[in-house]
Amino acid sequence: MPRWPVALVTGASSGIGRAVAVRLAAEGSHVIVVARRRDRLEALATDLRAAHGVTVDVIVADLTDPDQLAQLEDRLRSGAPPVDLLVNNAGAGGQGPFADIPIDWQASQIRLNVLAPVRLTHAALEPMLARGHGGVLNVSSIAGLQPMPHVATYAATKAYLSSFSHALHEEVRRQGVTVTALLPGFTRTEFHDAAGMNRSIVPGPAWMKADTVARAGLRAVWRGRAQCVPGLGYRVLTGISGVVPWSVSRRALGAVLAR
């Protein structure tokens, strides 16, 4: 019996989400993969079925669309079959001065990075709490630990998601359900290219593999932890960020991210 008999993963077509889906399938989970790109989801599903003999359901959805988001909420509430693990991985970002980035794109980031995981978590928790079993893994970021000029909206959405996850962790931890915030650092995915972020400002050793992040996150939610920061270097950085005044960190980060 797999640790999570049925798992639903958003943003599963690439990056951390794909790595999570692969790991879950390898453990024998029935995986429900969600993303916008049908071709990638279908290819992933075919690979996972062939490699691990598991059931893989494909749901094509744009989580910034209210109707499509509502349909996924209905799936989580219906419990047919019940989802044991929800992985809120879908997200988007963008780099540049806030005033120069179209407000519609900023609003879309907030819908995807904040509203979607909040609504999906609410939908998933009701049946999980009724059964006394389940897990929610919210993929946040170390970017949410400090104000970050030039990625202001993205960092703020991740700060929200981390705080939200910690609060829910405390609310449900005695009811058989775990909510975990996963805070990866720089990870080798398509995310940074899609967001137009400058990869050259990050030294090579700072980059992590998506599979490493996925493995750490799944282990953390299974062990009932409120937060997971993969990588020793990033855990040290997290500790330092907790004591550095924002007046210092925002200037330093602003200088780096303006490049």
Please give a structural write-up:
- The protein has 259 residues and is an alpha/beta fold.
- It has a single domain (6-257), classed as NAD(P)-binding Rossmann-like Domain (Rossmann fold, 3-Layer(aba) Sandwich).
- The protein has nine helices and seven strands.
- It has helices spanning 15-26, 38-52, 66-78, 103-131, 152-172, 191-194, 210-222, 232-241, 246-257; strands at residues 6-10, 30-35, 56-60, 85-88, 134-139, 177-182, 227-228.
- A seven-stranded parallel sheet has the order 3-2-1-4-5-6-7, sandwiched between helices.
- Helix 1 packs parallel to helix 2, helix 1 packs across helix 7 (210-222) and helix 3 runs parallel beside helix 4.
- It is globular.
- The relative contact order is 0.13.
- The mean pLDDT is 89.
Topology, element by element:
Elements: E1 6-10, H1 15-26, E2 30-35, H2 38-52, E3 56-60, H3 66-78, E4 85-88, H4 103-131, E5 134-139, H5 152-172, E6 177-182, H6 191-194, H7 210-222, E7 227-228, H8 232-241, H9 246-257
Parallel strand pairs: 1-2, 1-4, 2-3, 4-5, 5-6, 6-7
Helix pairs in contact: 1-2, 1-7, 3-4, 4-5
Low-confidence segments: none
- The count of strands amounts to 7
Number of domains: 1
Average predicted local confidence, pLDDT:
89
Listing every helix as H and every strand as E from the N terminus to the C terminus, the arrangement reads: EHEHEHEHEHEHHEHH
**Which second-level CATH architecture applies?**
3-Layer(aba) Sandwich
Structural category is alpha/beta
Note the gap between the termini: 50 Å
The strand line-up of the biggest sheet is 3-2-1-4-5-6-7
> Per CATH, what is the topology?
Rossmann fold
- Share in helix: 40-55%
CATH class category name: Alpha Beta
* Name of the CATH superfamily: NAD(P)-binding Rossmann-like Domain
Q: What is the tally of helical segments? A: 9
Q: Globular, elongated, flat, extended or rod-shaped: what is the shape?
A: globular
Proportion of β residues?
Answer: 5-15%
What's the gyration radius in Å? 18 Å
Mind summarizing the main beta sheet?
7 strands, parallel
